[in-house]
Design a protein that fits this description.
2 copies of one chain form a homodimer. Chain A is globular. Chain A has 9 helices and 15 strands. Chain A folds into 2 domains: about 160 residues, Medium-chain alcohol dehydrogenases, catalytic domain (Quinone Oxidoreductase, Chain A, domain 1), CATH 3.90.180.10; about 150 residues, NAD(P)-binding Rossmann-like Domain (Rossmann fold, 3-Layer(aba) Sandwich), CATH 3.40.50.720. Chains A, B: Keywords: Oxidoreductase. Chains A, B: It comes from Dipteronia sinensis.
Chain lengths: ~350, ~350
């Protein structure tokens, strides 16, 4: 389908634009909606595709891209004045790529806008299981589910019966890690920032236990209460004081998968972590990872995730936001930690 | 040879006794020499052996055992009033063990005394290559060499051409790691605490470069100078501020093998390490290890180490101390960082 010579169709393209690089937490005024137009025609001789965006993931990744990381290896920044970028689900409307054709459903890195020109279409993943809600590919069947799978199965090297602690356990990744760990046969405790989230972790997601870290004066004492035998696996989303307390409670040959350190992102001076001697004493392996390194195993992940979701063994909550106009407010709410469930922005339903 | 009925021979047994658990650095007065006697007879029906100690390793491990670790998992403490324990080379003088016979040369955990009763003789390793100096089995062919091998080859997963930094590089382990890394084809820089050690690292042990960390105001700047491209592998012996500076200079997918954190051992409040976000950003694997987990691979280590030493490809310096009477002073000197070369206490030469 490389190129085509038909007349270009110009379409309205509503976009969520980044005003300036953000510092710290985003404000609604950091973004604005602009209506532009886009030619639904792919330049001849290129392999680019144009997708119509259906569902967008509102997450920390997009928030991170709004910061100026231009001197930071391994990080990407959006360009002020352009549409925010993030993961989403779309439908191919025009394709110069041999393996993607019109009407194909795909997910991958796209823009917060109605239509996106994707110049590296090899990064898009075709959606084959369409019996599950398409929006799931912004989360549990997309980056956050895959991150949970790679972090737990690949980085943590779990064994049945091990003690697993997940911080920020109600986050899009944490809640899936916990459910994978339960299905695998581990004992799972999570921490979260509100009593409502703690209740859902225990009663909806099947965690063995959970606690509200904001109500704990002494995180070390809290962990000792929930893990009298110690922790084999720590799925790290938080960093700082939580990591310091966890280190004191790790068991011999424990593993720490570092997926995030959200408590540290907006600090000028990151917290000091004092208990690293435990890495030596307990022969701990601590490993940072990003999901992109594991994408070649995406179908292995689906083999676990799809049947578990179909059979209701893994639960999933979405927080649906209608329209690009509401994206900025959703992002601010996410950043405040108030969102319950995966925040999905609906651009169009088909 | 299980048991024997001959008359027990009583032998003088000079011992170096721990007076009380030490706090911080050892003083000569923490130890004293006592002359006892020992029956050179193994109780019938047991597999115990008695060895005549020849060479003892004076090292941080013995120093660590002099502290009270009784509430610390994975750590052993000596008993005040008993002989200090540590690694050494000995000759079997009596054996109840099927695979050890009189005159066999062995190395393993023994006591700072003339004769030791070893009740777990399966922990002793028979010395097969006797063309190299026996004292080497207290160090380069014993625990420190094996630690270097396991840490570098097994934990660091090195690749040819990678950039390797070793702190406390002149230590018994560090200097062997550096030489293994050079033989393997890496670029190797070490830090040490005196100009004399720096010179020896460069000119005797063949490090590509080395620096005196005490003369650096800014460790981050120093590492940037020695590793403009960054560090792939950090062999960690020091911890604290050095680790914090190294984290800033690690490359993508770097590895940190945590062998020791000597700057932290005697602190009531360990230093805070602030740059752990780099573990996430650079997908670093940081792993604590102890050599004991790798002992099943000892013969693999010898396959690398023995020919390299025979052919002069690996250099080794010993600091020989004559007699148990001088052991306490040697330990204090070691603790002060003044020793140059592996400190070996000679108890007897055969």
């Amino acid at each position: 389908m490389a190129g085509n010579n038909s007349e270009a169709v110009m379409m309205r393209n509503k976009q969520v634009i980044l005003k300036n690089y953000i510092n710290g937490s985003p404000k609604e005024s950091d973004l604005y909606v602009k209506t532009d137009s886009i030619s639904l025609k792919v330049e001849q001789g290129t392999s680019a595709v144009i997708i119509k965006n259906l569902y967008l993931s509102c997450d920390l990744y997009s928030m991170s891209r709004m910061k100026d990381h231009n001197d930071r290896e391994g990080y990407s920044s959006d360009l002020p004045g352009s549409a925010v970028k993030g993961f989403g689900v779309g439908k191919v409307v025009e394709s110069g790529h041999a393996e993607l054709k019109k009407e194909d459903l795909v997910w991958g890195l796209t823009g917060w806008e109605e239509y996106s020109l994707i110049t590296n279409p090899e990064s898009l993943i075709k959606i084959l299981h369409t019996d599950l809600p398409l929006s799931y590919y912004t989360g549990i069947l997309g980056i956050s589910g895959m991150t949970a799978w790679a972090g737990f199965y690949q980085v943590c090297s779990p064994k049945k019966g091990e003690y697993v602690f997940i911080s920020s356990a109600f986050g899009a990744v944490g809640q899936v890690v916990g459910q994978f760990a339960k299905l695998f046969g581990c004992y799972v405790v999570g921490s979260a920032g509100s009593d409502e989230k703690v209740e859902l972790l225990k009663n909806k997601f099947g965690f063995d236990d959970a606690f509200n870290y904001k109500e704990e004066q002494d995180l070390n004492a809290a962990l000792k209460r929930y893990f009298p035998q110690g922790i084999d696996i720590y799925f790290e989303n938080v960093g700082g004081k939580m990591l310091d307390a966890v280190l004191l409670n790790m068991r011999l040959r424990g593993r720490i998968a570092v997926c995030g350190m959200v408590s540290q992102y907006n600090l000028d001076h990151p917290d000091g972590v004092h208990n690293l001697m435990n890495i030596l004493d307990k022969r701990i392996r601590m490993e940072g990872f990003v999901v992109i390194d594991y994408m070649s195993q995406y179908s292995e992940f689906l083999d676990v995730a799809v049947p578990s979701i179909r059979e209701g063994k893994i639960d999933y909550v979405e927080d649906i936001v209608e329209g690009l106009e509401n994206a900025a407010a959703a992002l601010v709410e996410l950043s405040s930690g108030k969102s319950v469930g995966k925040v999905v922005i609906v651009v169009a339903r088909d």
